[in-house]
Amino acid sequence: MRKSALILPVLAALIFVGLSSVFIVTEVEKALVLRFGRVVAVKEEPGLAFKMPFVDEVVRYDDRILSRDVDPLEVTPRDDRRLVVDAFARYRIADVNQFRLAVGSGGEAAAERRLDSILRSKTREILGSVSSNEILSSDRAALMLRIRNAAIAEALGLGIEVIDVRLKRTDLPRENLQATFDRMRAERVREATDERARGREAAQRITALADRTVVELVSDANRQSEIIQGEADARRNGIFAEAYGADPEFFEFYRSLTAYRNALKGSNSTMVLSPDSEFFNYLGSANGVAAAE
Asked: CA 256, CA 277: separation in Å to the nearest integer?
């Protein structure tokens, strides 16, 4: 009876000691075994692990990929146009032993504060070396890669692997928005004015070319008209000369009729002349013979 009473506490103590010497490492974590604050074992594989009971301490760290949002910061690009940048990073604890040495008992909170400082410094450094147009453009993957590569080297000292850095938002400071909008509006007005001026210049060139073409066409048409008219007059005069040479009397008669037609136009024409005027040579007799003859 007395032996059983002693055995039960001993068994309970042994079970308690056994359980205190065993711990479980899950798939999403890594563990350090500390003895009086000094790392004595690193447990990265999931499963059962052992430690010295009542002496060793187990510190667990997340082994998953973590995200960290960086507070918005103001950067000054190469063209002195201030921008507000909002970024975030994805990282994981790659070396838990180095991580413990770097941040001590501060853990992940201390590491994130130091990672924030690294990311802010590298973001200002990289974005300060380019123009604001490159930062505001949609094709800024190269800038994010440069920030990531610059942060990787320093983050390794913390036992952290920086996987990715992304710029979520790049805006102008609120106090600069109106001035920027006014400058953009002035640039658009200037471009529109230049475009209208170029349009007016092109219109003047086209109008001048059209006017010159009209003058050239009209001049050429007048020249050809005068040539044709001169040729027609020459042919007419030739026909008249030939007709005069063939029958001078008939030619004289034709010229008199033409003179009558031109002189006595209309239905109410009156002409007062001497009866023996040569103008009426062919009106003096019924047979068409002049009165003087």
From this structure: 13
